[in-house]
Amino acid sequence: MLKILSLSQNLFSGPIPKMLGNLRHLEWFQISDNNLITGSATDHEWSFLSSLTNCRNLRTIDVSGNPLSGVLPTYIGNLSKSLQFFYAYNCELQGIIPMEIGNLTNLLLLDLGYNKLSGLIPASIGGMRNLQGLFLSSNKLGGPISKSLCGLERLYKMYLGLNKLHGPIPSCLGNITSLGYLYLNSNKLSSAIPSNLWNLKDILEIDLSSNHLYNSHAIDVGNLRSLLKLNLSRNLLTGDILSTFGVLQTLVSLDLSNNILHGHIPESFDGLISLEFLDLCNNNLSGVIPKPLEKLLYLKYFNVSFNRLEGEIPSKGCFSNFSSTSFMKNYALCGPPRLLVPPCKNDIHKNSQMIILHAFRYGLPTLGIVVVLIVLTIMYRRCQRRSTTLPIKDDLLSLKTPRRISHAELSRATNGFEESNMLGSGSFGCVYKGRLSDGMEVAIKVFNLQTEGAFRSFDIECDAMRNIVHRNIVKVITCCSIVDFKALVLDYMSNGNLEKWLHSENCFLDMIQRVDIMIDVAVAIEHLHNGHPTPIIHCDIKPSNILLDEDMVAHVGDFGVAKLLGEEFGSTGIVSIKSDVYSYGIVLIETFTKKKPTDNVFIEEESIRHWMERSLPKGAIEIAGVDLLRREDEYIVVKANCISSIMELALNCSAELPEERKDMKDVVVELKKIKQRLINNIQHF
């Protein structure tokens, strides 16, 4: 009596034999990792399964790794009630998972991962009360996660990642106390993370990354004493990181990157004694990197880039192995030169003392000592001082850049500032496209020194932009400053500016692109307002100053009239961060209506804001750009609701009274929520 049939990795090809039903005592059928096919291209049913229904003692079916294609037949539910393991991952399966699969009530493991399955996860799976492993990752499954899955009270592993699932995470999943592995990553889930998930005290791995999840309160993981891996990256999480993370002594990997978290890195992180991987990049974290983290003996990967951290980078223990990419794009970190950050103040002070001691030791003349002391004192004081103004400087070559550049090289880069290389012009001067000697494409902003205020504009823009490092703010590569020529060398933005995309006949932005661009701009402004000890006010937020790179990521540029906050905006007209918020609101309106504030349609005393306030109640179809919202559009209701929500936000940003205007941090969160609602309703936009 044949009980086991295993032909794995035998390079067996051709169709699966249909006479398997004669093997009535078969318990284990394994024919994985071969080159099996089911028949003709039009035969989409796994006919071999029908013969296996006669094998009443069958416990395992494994056909994984074969290009079987086709769809699962409904008679899969006729297989033996004794079946415990069904493996069919990476079989190019298509179509839906039949509801009849729920008849396999004694199944312990179901693996249909890495296929092309679509449709919903059948609610009938929730009836498989003995199921311990559910593997449906890397398919095209959509719809919400059925609450029926919460009935799988013995489930140990749930892998639903890399699908198109949307809606909330059912809170009842937190009642499956047997869960050891929960993977819902890379879907379109949108809800608060259920708080009772943090009560699964025996869970080992949680991955909720790359969704649209948010938190209604701080994430408290203090009960997860067995946790090995936690990945919450690429979501909409806000708030502080609680110190309770420090009790997770078994945690090996923690990824909270690409969220909107703020506050400090908890010193309690030194309690993560097993940690090997820590990623906190792309958040709004501030303060210092806690020195006690040097105690983490097993930490191999560490990333806090794109935050607002400051102070000295720890240098001992595991930190001696990290490179500059772990710390790039922060507010004011300092440390050794190899990390491409400025030296710390105390290091400068120590260095000055050493130079003085050497000077005395080797008999430096008294006059030389005095000169050295004066120079070092000036350097030390400059490093200590945090400026509260934007001073005019005679020479801006101290710009924090890896290179300096001459007028001659800029001339060569632009073919003598040839008109054909001109990207645009304004009151400040002209911008040229250029190619440097190393092949790098750049934008070169040449200031017209005959224009009143040009010198001051150049100095202000240099001083402001060299202290601003952010992924959504145009990067200054270097500058050139001589007596009769001043220019900034900037990152080249191959897709031009937002004004071109809004008002040129040959350009078009869809709904998602416009929302993404305005999220990028909001994030940049929020960084200017809150990412520095003294808020920076751009003062000139408009479409022509919003530049788009090759990936259509937006970057705010042109800081020629930027100011540091001195007083709040009032009736006297003194600028404040609320001035930028107002301008942002107006740009929001222009982006979705294609109407400029200067259009002739706004006659007499009516402004674009007044027009929006009056027109919005009539409906989005009356205000949206004709290329964005058409009556015959299949998704007109979804898009109209999105535009209405954004226009309400725009009105809140541009309120008449400054104190009634939104904070940019709230604008970022609200726009991201609007975007996620839009994505949830339109799968292919």
From TrEMBL:
<keyword id="KW-0433">Leucine-rich repeat</keyword>
<keyword id="KW-0677">Repeat</keyword>
<dbReference type="InterPro" id="IPR017441">
    <property type="entry name" value="Protein_kinase_ATP_BS"/>
</dbReference>
<feature type="domain" description="Protein kinase">
    <location>
        <begin position="417"/>
        <end position="679"/>
    </location>
</feature>
<keyword id="KW-0547">Nucleotide-binding</keyword>
<dbReference type="InterPro" id="IPR051809">
    <property type="entry name" value="Plant_receptor-like_S/T_kinase"/>
</dbReference>
<protein>
    <recommendedName>
        <fullName>Protein kinase domain-containing protein</fullName>
    </recommendedName>
</protein>
<keyword id="KW-0812">Transmembrane</keyword>
<keyword id="KW-0723">Serine/threonine-protein kinase</keyword>
<keyword id="KW-0472">Membrane</keyword>
<keyword id="KW-0418">Kinase</keyword>
<dbReference type="InterPro" id="IPR001245">
    <property type="entry name" value="Ser-Thr/Tyr_kinase_cat_dom"/>
</dbReference>
<feature type="transmembrane region" description="Helical">
    <location>
        <begin position="359"/>
        <end position="380"/>
    </location>
</feature>
<dbReference type="GO" id="GO:0004674">
    <property type="term" value="F:protein serine/threonine kinase activity"/>
</dbReference>
<feature type="binding site">
    <location>
        <position position="445"/>
    </location>
    <ligand>
        <name>ATP</name>
    </ligand>
</feature>
<dbReference type="InterPro" id="IPR003591">
    <property type="entry name" value="Leu-rich_rpt_typical-subtyp"/>
</dbReference>
<dbReference type="InterPro" id="IPR000719">
    <property type="entry name" value="Prot_kinase_dom"/>
</dbReference>
<dbReference type="InterPro" id="IPR008271">
    <property type="entry name" value="Ser/Thr_kinase_AS"/>
</dbReference>
<dbReference type="GO" id="GO:0005524">
    <property type="term" value="F:ATP binding"/>
</dbReference>
<dbReference type="Pfam" id="PF07714">
    <property type="entry name" value="PK_Tyr_Ser-Thr"/>
</dbReference>
<dbReference type="InterPro" id="IPR032675">
    <property type="entry name" value="LRR_dom_sf"/>
</dbReference>
<keyword id="KW-0067">ATP-binding</keyword>
<dbReference type="InterPro" id="IPR001611">
    <property type="entry name" value="Leu-rich_rpt"/>
</dbReference>
<keyword id="KW-0808">Transferase</keyword>
<dbReference type="Pfam" id="PF13855">
    <property type="entry name" value="LRR_8"/>
</dbReference>
<dbReference type="Pfam" id="PF00560">
    <property type="entry name" value="LRR_1"/>
</dbReference>
<keyword id="KW-1133">Transmembrane helix</keyword>
<dbReference type="InterPro" id="IPR011009">
    <property type="entry name" value="Kinase-like_dom_sf"/>
</dbReference>
<dbReference type="GO" id="GO:0016020">
    <property type="term" value="C:membrane"/>
</dbReference>
